[in-house]
Amino acid sequence: MSSLEIKFRKTKLDSEKMKRILITGATGNVGTEVIYYLKERDNESEIIAAVRNIDSAKKSFPNFPNLLLKRFDFEDENSFNTAFKNIDVLFLLRPPHISQVDKFFKPLLASAKENGIEKVIFLSVQGVEKSKVIPHHKIEQLIIQMGFNYIFVRPSYFMQNLTTTLLPEILKNKTITLPAGKAKFNWIDIKNIGEVAAILIKSFEKYQNKAYEITGTENKSFKEVTELMSKIAGIKFSFKPINPISFYFKKRKEGVLKGFAVVMTILHFLPRLQKEPRISDDFSVITGKKTTTLKEFIEREKEKITKHKLQQT
Ligand SMILES: NC(=O)c1ccc[n+]([C@@H]2O[C@H](COP(=O)([O-])OP(=O)(O)OC[C@H]3O[C@@H](n4cnc5c(N)ncnc54)[C@H](OP(=O)(O)O)[C@@H]3O)[C@@H](O)[C@H]2O)c1
What we know:
alpha/beta, Rossmann fold, three-stranded mixed beta sheet, binds NADP nicotinamide-adenine-dinucleotide phosphate, single chain
C-alpha cells in the first residue's frame, strides 16, 4: 500500500471512529435539543452532558436515564480539567448571563487545548461578524486564534423566546413589551438548531472551519407575530412598543440582572437600525429538510401561551 493510501485510510478511520462529545449548556433550550438529536442519530459516539449540578440535571433527561453527566461550571476553572479529559468534540455555548469573555472563555479554551480537544462547535448568533460588541464575536475570534478546528452555528431569533423569556408577560397581560418597534426578526425553532448541530457534530470534518447561519424562512415584526398568535390561539395578544431606556429600567425593576437586561435591550433594539435579517438555506442544505414555520410553532406550543386561560376555564 502506498503512503498516500495509508494516509487516506488513516484519515477515513479517524473521521469514522467513535467520538466523545461534551455538551455544555446541556440542560438549556438548545443543549437539550442537541442531545436529543445526537442520541437519535448517533449510536456510536459517547455523549456527555456537562452540567453544574448532576443531581438536578438528571431530571432534565427523563428519556435518557443512561446519559453520562459530568460536573462542569463555566465559573469554576477547577471543573474544566476533569470535564475535558478524553473529549474529541466540545459543543460550547455562552450562558446568557456570562459576558466576560477574557475572564471565563480564555481559561476554558486554554484548558480544552491542554486536554487535547481539537474540535469545537460554538453556538453563536446571526450577524455576529458585523457586531464586535457582542461577546460571541470575541469568542469566535478566540477559537480561531487558538487553532481549534471549529464550526460556528449562527442562529437567528429563537421562536422559543415566546415560550420562555417573554412568556410571563404573555400569560399575565397577553402582551409583549419590547423596544423592537417595527423591526423584522428572523424566527428559528430551537429544534431545528438541535437537529442541524447533531449533523454538524457527527460529520464534523466535512463541515469544519466554517460558519453556518441557521434561520427560518420568515422575517416578521412582533406586531405580526402577536397577530398570528391571536389568530391561532383565539385570544387577543398585542405588541406594546417601548423605548430602549424605559425597557432597560423596566427589566431591572422586574429583577432582571444588569448584564441580561442590557443584552435583552440590545437584542431587541439593534434590529431597528439594521437591514432585515438574511434568510439562509444552510439548514435545508445540511439536513435536506424545511425549517419550522411560525404558524407550525404557535400551533405546536399553543397550550403554553394560553395556559392562563386554560387554567381559568
Ligand atoms: N434567544 C435567542 O433568540 C438567541 C438567538 C441566537 C443565539 N442565542 C444564544 O444562545 C445562547 C443561549 O442558549 P440557550 O437558550 O440554550 O440557553 P439557556 O436555555 O439559558 O441555557 C443555559 C445553559 O447554560 C447552563 N449554565 C448557566 N450557567 C452555567 C455555569 N456557570 N456553568 C455551567 N453551566 C451553566 C445552564 O445550566 P443550569 O441548568 O445549571 O442553569 C443551561 O444549561 C446564548 O449565548 C445566546 O446569545 C440566543
